[in-house]
Amino acid sequence: MAYTKKDGTVVTDEWMDAIAEAAEKDELPGVVLTTETHVGRPKLYADDDMETVSFRLPKSRLSAIERAVKQKGESRSDFLRNAVDRALIGL
């Protein structure tokens, strides 16, 4: 069977089998690129270090935040960062 990539390149089952076999023998053709390995998740703000902020909220407000993050499908931290950003833009 043959597959056409978005760029128009045709890839066959035979070609994929050959690449898989070469990879298993650690003999992949082509240029090996060396890359830096970074442990952990990428920085959210590449140009700025992060600080932890802790503050207290009424339970009812925290419950409302939890409902909102569940509805939006984002983390509590992302929700609160976005809320702070929106508040600062409005200044």
Automatic annotation (TrEMBL):
Name of the protein in its database record: Ribbon-helix-helix domain-containing protein
